[in-house]
Amino acid sequence: MNTMTLWHISGWEFAALAAAALLVGFSKTAVSGANTVSLAIFAAVLPARASTGVLLPILIVGDVLAVLTYRRHAHWPTLWRLFPAVAAGVVIGTLFLVWADDAVVRTSIGAILLFMAGVTLWRRRKAEAAAKGAAGAEGAAGAADEPDSVATRSGRAKARSYGVLGGFTTMVANAGGPVMSMYLLSAGFRKLGFLGTSAFFFLIVNVTKVPFSVGLGLIDGHSLLLDAALAAFVVPGALIGKWAVNRINQRLFEQLVIAATIIGGLQLLLR
To answer: Using CA atoms, how far apart are residues 127 and 160, in angstroms rounded to an integer?
Structure first.
């Protein structure tokens, strides 16, 4: 990575990165997957590969804030089921980064995100009638924050497939958020369970990615100095997200997550 390019950003470019950092905080405590917009901003301002190394510590700051906010709502059986598959995906993603150029990475991730969003929309439309029948139980389900399909055989298979894809996408482009958002929605997580589970998931996964990123030359002293300047903007974003999430109903929450995934996929494909 040519770290000297990190010092040649203009005031407007720094403002764009600061706005993207604020959006990271918001996405971690309100609409998971919205940070795909941040990914696109970082990749537009900085060299594409360098941007992943700068963004990773910013994401970790957001993860810590999300864990502090939603730690009581995490569903650990789901997390333990996902981690082995995610580890495999991270290894595959690391090997992919050794030879893939930026264009291949962007196209691959964008296509995966749009495919996931399409599958999720299809499944949700197919299950709409059943969801209406279960609407009366929404209060109890929301209180328990329990998914409805992770303990079955098909649920375990789905966890493994989404886990590998999530590990792969988070390693190559910090774009695992939309993949895991699609998984958690399809598994039936309510809003707080969704946020609590994804908070712990990404804190653990992103911290695990740090040695790989350092080994690939994506994180160094220069990138960390830029991170130190940007990290302060994550906090107000997280506070805004915490305020907003209590004012977003479940249906709107799910629609926003899916929309953020589609936008992120299109951005990656059209760049």
So the answer is: 22
